[in-house]
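Quick start: what a row looks like.
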Amino acid sequence: MSFFKNILSKVGIGSATVETELFNNVFVPGQPVEGVVNITGGKVTQDIDTVYIKIKSTYEDEVEIGEDDEETEVDVTRTAEIMRLQISEPFTLNPEESVSFDLNFTLPWDTPATAGKTVTWVETGLDIKMAIDPGDKDYLNVTPHPLAERVLDAAMELGFEISEVVCEPAPAAMDMRVPFVQEFELKPVKGSFKNRLDEIELVFKPFEDSIQIFMEVDRKAKGVFGHLSEMMGTDETMVNFLVQKKDLPDLTGKMNDIIEEYCA
C-alpha cells in the first residue's frame, strides 16, 4: 500500500463503503427486522474491527439559555440510541472486494412510533482503526407497539381522536430503559366524554406480553371553580394500569370504566 493511498483511506477517500438493504416496509416493535449489509472494498486493503448497527430515535427537549432572570427556554431535538448490535468479527477487506452479512434482529419493544416530529433509523457502520468510519442510514416506518395500538383503537371507539404525538424526556419515576417517552394526546370529539374532558394523554411502557399505561385525564373546567382548578393545575389526574392480551376482548369497556372514574 502506498503512503499516499493509506492517507487518503484514513480520511475516507477511496475507502470501504457500506450499504444496508432492509426487507421490511413497515416495522413493528417486538417483531423481526431482516435485511442484508453489503460492504465494498475501496482502493486499499483495510482491517475492519467490526460491522455494527444502531437503532436511533429523536425526541424533543427544552434547554435554558441566558443568565439569571433573563433565561429563555429553547426547544432542541435530541437523539437517543435504542439498540446497538455487532454483526461481525474482525476481518480484512481487500481492494474492491464485496462482502455481505445477513441482518436479522428484533426491533426493541420501546421503539417509538413514527409520528409527529419523531424519526427512527438504522445506522450501519464499519469500525476501522485510524480511519473515518463509513456509514449508512436507513429510516424506519414504525407502527405503535401492538398492545399500544389496541389501546389507541379502544380510545377512538370511545370517541377520542389523536391530536398530537410527541417524544419528550422521560420522568425518572417511570424508570424507562431509554431517556424519553412517547406521549399521545387525544381529544374527545364525540361520545359520552365529549363535553366532560379536555383531553387524555397516554404514555406506554411496553413489555413482551403486556404494556403499562400512564394516563393523564384532563377534566373539563366547569364554572369559576373549574377555572381556578385549571389555573392551579389541579384538574389533571394521573393513573397507571396494566394491559395484557387477556384484557383485549373487553379493552374498550376497561378503558371506559377507568376514564369514567377519573373524569367525575
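That is the whole record. Residues 1-14, 221-235 have pLDDT under 50 and may be disordered. The two ends are 77 Å apart (CA to CA).
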